[in-house]
Design goal:
There is one protein chain. The protein is an alpha/beta fold. The protein has 22 helices and 20 strands. Helix 5 runs antiparallel to helix 10, helix 7 runs parallel beside helix 18 and helix 9 runs antiparallel to helix 20. The longest helix has 55 residues. The radius of gyration is 37 Å and the shape is flat. The N and C termini lie far apart (81 Å).
């Protein structure tokens, strides 16, 4: 067995500029071998790495130790701060007896120091605001934030393509919401066909997800001015690398958003950075904290994009360290790209933990001096099992290590320090004012407003109570458009879940009472459609010339008359009363042409309804005929199955009639008779 001192001398005794982790532990894991350092060459940090370990084992302090030494070496650092602890790097450590004891035991000098910090914030409340336009963020990352399926993700990519080709700048969430509303409206039908047949239902789901994201406050960090990633590559007047700390204390409850935003930053660094090859030290080291949040539920295309970025960004002089609790949180294809490992203690309280512990131990270089599996559970706070890439690119020996103490404060900074950092920040001033230039929202609103010119009433003019189904009183004084293009309805609650909507006449007098005005009539060709509703109700849609009759069949039913209108009130009613998605209604009427028209006469309405009923009866006959054919098909299949079983029995009987089968059968019969005789003899003797 080689001497342990010789192993560490050969593995870590290089003179290259390096980040020093600490001293190796002896074979009993009690004291330290103070003749050796455990260190990683600066020029190997662009080969990426992993910092892992259970909660409370010291991962955050390891990041702080890393960042301090990189800053001293003139390397800028990016960190994510979930708890606010890392902002303490702006202040020198106040010291502590335990720090003195640790550093004295390791025979290393230690002096407090502060470091140049730049505070960044997604909301702008705790640092320079980080913003990114929706278009720059891209459909893949946005789909991750919105928790989209693969189908929804592909549709989102098509939407981005449509916006780009039609000059619709997607800068913030309101742009995306407005575009989705446009695509689900009448104007978007042709677009859906031209761009691969996008489903209205899928677009409505995306619209809902985008509005939910907006409600979560995500609109704060989507917009302009876009953050310039070159602001991460800075040093101070003394040549120390600036540590950019993204303060996440105010968005801790939105892990998908901040983890995906960090991935965007990394992707931008890759896209915008020049090729530098193998430099003496990295241009930037990026620590990706809570990495499991990025990979959870990520689509295949996003995982491939992450793997490509990690693999290719090393040539840009950028090192990436993923920080997580368990190495298994990182996909194998990404894990294979990480050359440096700092593994804090793992806890193994469950069978699954034991399995993960075994798998982790097997990934470290074999050592004759330590039981890796036992060491991983025996490490204390501030200790880690380390293997890195040496100066020649070969893995160093597995080294249980006691880490040095950070020189800066290991707690949150004082409020006065944070205020001074923000007040004196160049980036805070640079990104303080949001830019709101013309984008998809304004362009599409103009189109919709021009289409609605001539309308008598806008949505704002209607005082509408969805729950009661009542509109405010509207008189002829509120009306300034041509009477023949409007149609009135009287909404009357009928109790239960049903509502009765009585058709009025053209809007000409105050007699219309509570009414719904619209600037667009719908001309229907005469058709009928059914849709299943909750609680075993069926919605039958009967189309007449100027209105749709919605009849809900169930224990409590009510006819509902609906005319297409710019405010979408009828769709809101159906959604509120019966849970019908507005997009479903739009899909049902999408094939029907629309055009302004005069309200029909009673005779015309009656004729259209008669035709519609005939069409409905024809559809019912077709449905029954289809059911009959299905029943006949089932009977035919049943007859064939019976015939197959009969044939099998006949084949079995035929096999049994062969000479060989007859001999086997006779032998079995003789055997049974002999057995019976022996049993009778035995029991007969017993009875005697």
């Amino acid at each position: 067995m080689a001497d342990v001192n010789k192993v560490f001398e050969d593995g870590y005794g290089f003179d290259d500029d390096a980040v020093i982790f600490g001293r190796p532990l002896d074979t009993d894991l009690e004291g330290t071998l103070n003749d050796h350092f455990v260190q990683v060459p600066l020029r190997m940090l662009n080969k990426h790495g992993l910092v892992a370990g259970a909660t409370g084992t010291g991962k955050t302090k390891t990041l702080q130790l890393f960042a301090e030494q990189l800053s001293d070496a003139g390397v800028p650092v990016f960190l994510a701060d979930l708890k606010g602890d890392l902002a303490g790097m702006a202040e020198p450590s106040p010291g502590h007896p335990k720090i003195d004891e640790r550093m004295t035991g390791m025979d290393l000098p230690w002096t407090p120091a502060d470091y140049p910090l730049e505070l960044l914030s997604l909301t702008g409340d705790n640092g320079a605001p980080l913003r990114v336009p929706i278009s720059s963020f891209g459909p893949l990352l946005l789909a991750k934030v919105m928790d989209c399926t693969s189908t929804q993700e592909s549709v989102l990519q098509v939407i981005f393509k449509y916006a780009d080709e039609n000059g619709l700048a997607l800068l913030d969430l309101i742009d995306l919401v407005t575009l989705l509303k446009w695509l689900t409206g009448p104007e978007g039908k042709e677009v859906q066909k031209d761009y691969g047949g996008m489903s209205t239902a899928t677009l409505n789901v995306l619209l809902r997800k985008a509005m939910e994201l907006e409600g979560q406050g995500a609109e704060l960090f989507f917009g302009e001015p876009e953050f310039d990633i070159n602001d991460l590559f800075r040093t101070d007047a003394d040549g120390r690398g600036i540590v950019s700390v993204m303060n996440l204390t105010d968005v801790q409850d939105k892990p998908k958003i901040f983890s995906t935003f960090m991935m965007w930053l990394l992707a931008e660094v890759y896209e915008e950075s020049p090729e530098v090859g193998d430099a003496d030290k990295p241009r930037l080291v990026f620590f990706f904290d809570e990495a499991h949040l990025l990979f959870e539920g990520a689509s295949k295309s996003l995982l491939e994009a992450i793997e490509l970025t990690v693999r290719m960004i090393r040539s840009k002089g950028v090192g990436v360290f993923f920080v997580t609790q368990n190495p298994k949180d990182v996909p194998e294809d990404v894990l294979a790209q990480l050359g440096n490992r700092v593994q804090h203690a793992l806890r193994a309280f469950t069978p699954q933990d034991q399995k993960a512990l075994k798998a982790t131990a097997q990934t470290f270089p074999i050592t004759e001096h330590y039981d890796v599996r036992e060491t991983l559970t025996a490490l204390g706070i501030g200790e880690a099992l380390i293997t890195v890439l040496g100066p020649k690119g070969a893995p160093t020996p597995t080294a249980p290590t006691r880490l040095t103490a950070p020189r800066s404060k290991m707690d949150p900074a004082e409020p006065a320090t944070l205020e001074a950092l923000i007040a004196g920040s160049e980036l805070a001033a640079k990104y303080a004012d949001e830019v709101d230039r013309e984008s998809a929202h304004e362009i599409l609103l103009q189109k919709m407003e021009s289409r609605a010119d001539g309308a008598a009433l806008s949505a704002d003019a209607l005082d509408f109570d969805v729950e009661s189904g009542l509109l405010s009183e509207i008189t002829s004084a509120d009306y300034d458009g041509p009477a023949e293009t409007y149609f009135g309805f009287r909404f009357t609650p009928s109790g239960g879940q049903g509502r009765r909507v009585k058709m009025g006449g053209p809007f000409q007098t105050e007699e219309a009472g509570r009414l719904l005005a619209t600037d667009e009539m719908v001309v229907f060709l005469g058709s009928s459609s059914t849709l299943e509703l909750p609680k075993k109700k069926v919605l039958t849609i009967t189309a007449a010339r100027n209105f749709l009759q919605f009849h809900i069949q169930g224990r409590k039913s009510a006819p509902v008359f609906w005319v297409k209108d710019p405010t979408g009130l009828a769709a809101s009613l159906l959604n509120t009363w019966y849970g019908v998605e507005p997009g479903v209604i739009e899909e049902r009427i999408a094939p029907l042409a629309s055009a302004p028209a005069m309200p029909p006469s009673d005779e015309a309405v009656a004729e259209d309804i008669r035709h519609a009923k005939e069409a409905a009866r024809e559809a019912e006959r077709a449905r029954k005929e289809q059911e009959r054919l299905l029943r006949e098909r089932e009977r035919e299949l049943s007859r064939r199955r019976t015939s197959t079983r009969s044939s099998s029995r006949r084949r079995s009987s035929t096999r049994q009639s062969t000479p060989e089968a007859m001999m086997k059968s006779a032998a079995r019969s003789v055997g049974r008779e002999l057995g019976k005789s022996l049993i009778r003899g035995v029991f007969g003797n017993y009875r005697r």
